[in-house]
């Protein structure tokens, strides 16, 4: 982590996991903010492949988008082992993915996005940034209550009150389905960005890379892979590139 701070309100901090959604958010932020930094969290996730993908995606975006590269500032990785220690979810332990009695999948990590946003805001505060960008989405989501627009609005208010500084939480994917997310990547960065999303981002809950499918790497059968593959197919069927 570097210590030099950019001028106040000079940019945006993207919550960047190395997946399809946050990579699209990164491109979205680079398209409209003069300075963009990224933050990821090591929370003891079952599959570390996601963290490896982060650095690959960042390197490829720098390489393929010379107009964006000068806007790309520091990448931060913050430890958050407490989430893994609390455990009890299929994303942080070797538990089979299943639906819980209350209708939420057991991939739900309670409080995860709330913690992510709080830490991201603390980092943004120190770095002189007032905009947080995240891939939370209410359309195709798994029912995660911490992805809801109302949660984001409340969080934005809590952060602004608690740090006595205005914060904006920008969620460009909030009302998009997965097909629209593929379309957004295409419109922001053309085939070059779609290639990066397909080849280098990671979504699979089981941590599988394996063969490259048209929609990317992954097991193809976990809920995250299914959503990603179905979105890609719908985007293709609707005439990808339009
Ligand atoms: Zn999968």
Could you explain the architecture of this structure?
- It is a single chain.
- By secondary structure, the protein is of the alpha/beta class.
- It has one domain (12-202): Rossmann fold.
- The protein has helices spanning 20-32, 49-64, 81-86, 112-127, 149-163, 178-200, 223-237; strands at residues 12-15, 36-42, 72-79, 131-133, 168-170, 212-213, 216-217.
- The strands form 2 sheets. Strands 3-2-1-4-5 form a 5-stranded parallel β-sheet, with helices on both faces.
- α1 (20-32) crosses α6 (178-200), α2 crosses α6 (178-200) and α6 packs across α7 (223-237).
- It is globular, with a radius of gyration of 17 Å.
- The termini are far apart.
- The structure holds zinc ion.
- Residues 204-206, 208, 218-219, 222, 224-225 line the site of zinc ion.
Tell me the layout of helices and strands:
Blueprint: E1 12-15, H1 20-32, E2 36-42, H2 49-64, E3 72-79, H3 81-86, H4 112-127, E4 131-133, H5 149-163, E5 168-170, H6 178-200, E6 212-213, E7 216-217, H7 223-237
Helix pairs in contact: 1-6, 2-6, 6-7
Bound molecules: zinc ion.
The rounded distance between the terminal residues' Cα atoms is 39 Å
CATH fold naming: Rossmann fold
What is the CATH level 1 assignment? Alpha Beta
Helix-and-strand structural type = alpha/beta
Bound molecules: zinc ion
Helical segment count: 7
**What do the pLDDT scores average to?**
88
Strand tally: 7
Q: Strand arrangement, largest sheet?
A: 3-2-1-4-5
Order of helices and strands: EHEHEHHEHEHEEH
Percent range for β-strand residues: 5-15%
- Global shape: globular
Helix content: 40-55%
Number of structural domains: 1
Low-confidence segments, given as residue ranges, are: 1-8
Name of the CATH superfamily: HUPs
């Amino acid at each position: 982590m570097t210590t030099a701070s950019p001028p106040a309100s000079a940019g945006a901090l993207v919550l960047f996991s190395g997946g399809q959604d946050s990579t699209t958010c990164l491109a979205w932020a680079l398209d409209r903010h003069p300075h963009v930094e990224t933050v990821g969290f090591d929370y003891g996730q079952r599959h570390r492949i996601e963290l490896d993908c982060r650095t690959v995606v960042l390197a490829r975006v720098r390489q393929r988008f010379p107009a964006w590269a000068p806007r790309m500032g520091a990448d931060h990785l913050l430890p958050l082992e407490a989430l893994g220690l609390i455990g009890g979810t299929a994303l942080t332990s070797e538990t089979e993915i299943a639906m819980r009695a209350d209708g939420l999948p057991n991939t739900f990590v309670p409080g995860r996005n709330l913690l992510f946003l709080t830490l991201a805001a603390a980092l943004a505060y120190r770095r002189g940034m007032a905009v947080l960008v995240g891939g939370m989405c209410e359309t195709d989501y798994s029912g995660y209550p911490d992805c809801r627009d109302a949660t984001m609005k409340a969080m934005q208010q809590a952060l602004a009150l608690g740090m006595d500084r205005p914060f904006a939480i920008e969620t460009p994917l909030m009302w998009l389905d997965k097909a629209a997310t593929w379309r957004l990547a295409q419109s922001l960065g053309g085939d070059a960005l779609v290639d990066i999303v397909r080849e280098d981002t990671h979504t699979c809950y089981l941590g599988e890379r394996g063969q490259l499918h048209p929609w990317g790497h992954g097991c193809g059968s976990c809920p995250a892979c299914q959503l990603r593959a179905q979105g890609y197919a719908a985007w293709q069927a609707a005439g990808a590139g339009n």
